[in-house]
Amino acid sequence: MFSNKKITPYIFVFLAFSVISSKHIIIYNEEILVSLSFLFFVIFVSFYFGDTIKESLDERKKLIESELQNFLNLKKESYKTLFKIHEKAFLSYNIITNLIDFTTLKVKTKKAGSLTALRNIFKQEINTKLKNLSYSNFNLKSKLMKFFSDILLTAVLMKNQNSVSRQIKKTRAFTLISKTVK
To answer: How far apart are CA 59 and CA 70, in angstroms?
Structure first.
């Protein structure tokens, strides 16, 4: 049951303890008794329950390793997902930047085109107004010329009529005078 190899260390420890106690190297007080009790408890538990504790700790180790591996896998997957999201965000940023540049260019082009078109429309409107004004000016000139010609004709006729009527008056006056003289 007991072999010499297993008992020898216990005998050596017991003899060493006895010698140290007898020489008063170890003084027995509360702290020493508690320390010795704890030491013997640890030795007893490891001797009789060492395999059970080892199996329990090994199971716990495997459980912790699997949880750690799951955590690392989840972390790796989340990093991959975050990287994909970052790539999409960066791509979206580039697309939006290109879209803004394109839109700005198109707006400038349309603005320049619309300014040219607006200038052309403005020129056409001004030309139309000027033509209408010149046509109305021509009508006004022709009306003024007709009016002045009518006035001139009337004035000439009036003057002519006045001179005729004077002559008639002179002739009448002359005839009257000649009648009266006769």
So the answer is: 16
CA distance 70 to 108: 56
Distances (CA, A) of 47 to 1, 10, 59: 15, 13, 20
The amino acid present at 112, given as its one-letter code, is A
- Give the distance from CA 53 to its chain's centroid: 62
Query: What ranges do the domains of the chain cover?
Result: 4-135+138-159+161-172
- Own/partner contacts of 58-63, CB < 8 Å, gap of 24 or more, are none
Dump pLDDT digits (tens) for 100-158: 888 888 888 877 777 787 778 878 887 887 787 777 767 777 777 777 777 777 777 77
Its pTM stands at 0.39
DSSP 78-110: HHHHHHHHHHHHHHHHHHHHHHHHHHHHHHHHH
